[in-house]
Amino acid sequence: MANVRTTNRSIDPIWEQVQEEAHQAIVDEPLLGGLVHSSLLHHATFERALSYRLALKLSSGEMSEQLIAEIANAAYARNPALGLAARADLAAVYDRDPACHRLMQPLLYFKGFQAVQAHRVANALWREGRADLAYFIQMRTSEMFGIDIHPGATIGQGIMIDHAHSIVIGETAVVGDNVSMLHSVTLGGTGKEDDDRHPKIGDGVLIGAGAHVLGNISIGQCCRIAAGSVVLEDVPPMKTVAGVPAKIVGEAGCSQPSISMDQLLSGSMIE
């Protein structure tokens, strides 16, 4: 058994840690044994567990758990990058969210993580030309999690969406790697145009709660967008913007705002 566990850890340390946490969770709270077994311990791989969890959440009278699980499993098999991105997202939530104390928590309980993974499956289907099935997953994700991400939107890896309520991300939006955002963020358009009309968010950006970034504009890498801001113009890298409409109020304050999660503005910025 020791050799098997060592081999698993060398192949997939994220999944190995999740399984260890799951065993301990059952010891700590036996009433959750059925949930933990069916969602985590019953599955041989991280991707299988994720497919099961998404199917459980997104199924309805219109489409069964079994069918959604099969769709997700096939997407993961065709696109190994989906599973790698999900692991990066899981690590990001664990590292950046002070309410997350175990890797298994986002898999079981955090709608921000789950919604992003549902979007990744929908986006894979969208890129394969299966638009109606992608729209169905978008619809169910919005209904279940209160998060509306168009299946055409491009989302990087290492994404952390804290609380995650009322997130809206439009069709032509691009979100880079290692981005963090809080609830009620909108990455939207400014009218009825039908072309490239949504924001492009650079790597390492931190977007505060209730911020709205509108139009085909670029937010440079490692910027901070203060809570409640409305951003309508391009922002160069490593800046902090705030206000309605948002203006540059200073430097980003650190090299990795999305990881430090520091949302406080200094006195000079507020003045």
From TrEMBL:
- Kindly give the InterPro entries that the UniProt entry links to this protein: Hexapep, LbH_SAT, Ser_AcTrfase_N, Ser_AcTrfase_N_sf, Ser_O-AcTrfase, Serine_acetyltransferase, Trimer_LpxA-like_sf
| Cellular component, GO annotation | cytoplasm
Q: Name one GO biological process term.
A: cysteine biosynthetic process from serine
- Alphabetical list of SUPFAM superfamilies matching this protein: Trimeric LpxA-like enzymes (SSF51161)
Question: What EC designation does it have?
Answer: 2.3.1.30
**Residue ranges occupied by any Serine acetyltransferase N-terminal domain in the UniProt entry:** 14-118
At the top level of its lineage, which domain of life is listed? Bacteria
Q: Name one Pfam family in it.
A: SATase_N
Catalytic function, reaction form: L-serine + acetyl-CoA = O-acetyl-L-serine + CoA
Query: Which ranges form a coiled coil?
Result: none
GO MF assignments: serine O-acetyltransferase activity
Instruction: Name the top EC class.
Output: transferase
Spell out the CDD domains in the cross-references. Answer: LbH_SAT
Alphabetically list the UniProt keywords.
Answer: Acyltransferase, Amino-acid biosynthesis, Transferase
Q: In which pathway does it act?
A: Amino-acid biosynthesis; L-cysteine biosynthesis; L-cysteine from L-serine: step 1/2
What family, per the record? Belongs to the transferase hexapeptide repeat family.
What is the protein name for this chain? Serine acetyltransferase
